[in-house]
Amino acid sequence: MKKETPNFQKEISLTKMVYFLILLAFIGMIILYATGTFEALAVSSVKTVNNTENVDHNHGSADLNALNDIRALEEQFKNNPDDLNSLLNLSHLLNDSGFFAKAIENYNKYLEKIPNNADVVVDMGVCYFQLGNYDSAIKTMERGISINPQHQIAHFNLGIVNSAKGDLNKSKEYLEKAVKIDPNSDIGIKAQNLLDNH
């Protein structure tokens, strides 16, 4: 009479498979971290933010100084609605502090007055990405590229967003364009690293 094979062999195989998948995910995270992917998105080429140079870029929590600066800039803009520099600084500070929806609202106010500022459009796209709204992020960043076809950060960020969305072909296309614009810049090098690890 034939003995039945114990069930635990199937469970061991399943357990090994789970461990193998966890190991693969861990290796993938190490590769992404090593290439700077987690730091690369939301790189802004806007240099006009005077009041936010020392802001802690930890999106996990807003520090008290940032909140005080936000209130001060909100008050400044409320008292002088034509002060677009204060509005832009406020928008960037909200973005840097993790208040992405509020930053989008203020970026839109700014863009009503100056619609062709590609840097601001791309920064707003980053806010949509941070909120997990990939379609709006892509649409907004593509608008930035329509304003400035050589906007390297827009191309790079579109590579990241499309990758997060699962469209690897589109991601590769944008990363290749970012490299082509300037292969020797920090962004060009990061884009090439991502392409090499695609």
Structure, briefly:
The chain is an all-alpha fold. It is about 70% helix and about 0% strand. It has a single domain, classed as Serine Threonine Protein Phosphatase 5, Tetratricopeptide repeat, CATH 1.25.40.10.
Textual characterization of the structure:
- The chain has 198 residues and is mostly helical.
- The protein has one domain (9-44, 58-196): Tetratricopeptide repeat domain (Serine Threonine Protein Phosphatase 5, Tetratricopeptide repeat, Alpha Horseshoe).
- 71% of the residues lie in helices and 0% in strands.
- It is built from ten helices and no strands.
- The protein has helices at 8-34, 37-40, 64-79, 84-96, 100-113, 118-130, 134-147, 152-165, 168-181, 186-196.
- Helix 3 runs antiparallel to helix 4 (84-96), helix 6 (118-130) packs antiparallel against helix 7 (134-147) and helix 9 (168-181) runs antiparallel to helix 10 (186-196).
- The protein is globular.
- Mean pLDDT is 79; it is low at 5-12 and 42-60.
